[in-house]
Sequence to fold (380 residues):
Amino acid sequence: TEGISVKDLAEKLDVRGKDLIASLLMRGVFVTVNQSLEGELVKDVARQFGADATVISVEEQLENEAIEGFLEDTTGMVEIVRAPVVTIMGHVDHGKTSLLDAIRSTDVAAGEAGGITQHIGAYKVHVTKPDSPAFGREIVFLDTPGHEAFTRMRARGAKVTDIVVVVVAADDGVMPQTLEAIDHAKAANVPIIVAINKIDKPGADSNKVKQQLAERGLQLVGWGGEVEFVEVSAKKKLNLDLLEEMICLVADIASPKAVPERPAVGTVIEAKLDRGRGAVASILVQNGTLRTGDSYIVGNTFGKIRAMFDDRGRAITEAGPSTPVEILGLEGMPDAGDTFLVMADRDKAKGIAQYRKMKEREAQLAKSSRVSLEGLAEQI
Ligand code: GDP
Ligand code: MG
Fold:
């Protein structure tokens, strides 16, 4: 860590340098105005002078500046409508995985462009309509269905999804996790599309599903409400085109935007330690464009993009907004839901990563000492 000079600290605390030096002297710390102070000592001294105990360190300030800059400075840059990002949720066995697989298999561009589908946590589907050749759209599906992933990301403050598709099996009806999915989507303020699945099954009763949903406060179109729905069969691949069309329609209302020119910002979808390749992370680029050679901070680690791959395992050099990519060459392991930020220089990224790691260690230490104190109290 770089620390802060006595002079700067005095300025921040609005005290005379002389007084600060005197106070340090009392603590047995001999310094001159240009000398650098670090960590706890800075906090202690600051506290003594009545400053907020949460004095912002140089690294923290760096981080704030960096993030603010990346979030705001897009003046004069062109904004585009980016592809919507969709999460599929619903009760277990209602067909989330089947639906994702079925949709993936409809991707005509997949066959043309070559490459084998890679499971990198998210994938892009190219939607076309045979009767209108001009129609070409893209939808990104998060491949980690399940409430856990969604909740984990939301807990980290990551907003990755634009639309939630709630799958309900027409033979089984509304179940506890169906309601949970609806609650998640509502809490995240994300529009819902209901996919009534398994309509091929003999026991399928989609009217019952609609009624059950209405009773639970989710009124579908035609049932006194505005929530769109599609009746599908993942198994028989029925109406998947209608579902995709509906996703595009709902996306048009929200019309999520991005600025391709800016440095990339994204979220970690998943991360793993790969034998031979080291730390590997799937990132959803949400804004800006990620390029090979870019330095970045992600969670409390950092790195430089030496190579990246798309959802078909093809090496790419650029990834624009709403593109899932797999990146290698991370210095450590990030977590799902961590924010990914391209930084102007590697040293800054490294500094921030070290700072975050230190904070994490401090928090862990505080926790473990609290635990051992509690243990001690119990013994007494
Ligand atoms: P998940 O737990 O929500 O991911 O559900 P799965 O996709 O694993 O599906 C659970 C079971 O339902 C599997 O045996 C699927 O083959 C079956 N299934 C999924 N979709 C359909 C469908 O549209 N029709 C029928 N008949 N079965 C389906
Ligand atoms: Mg599944």
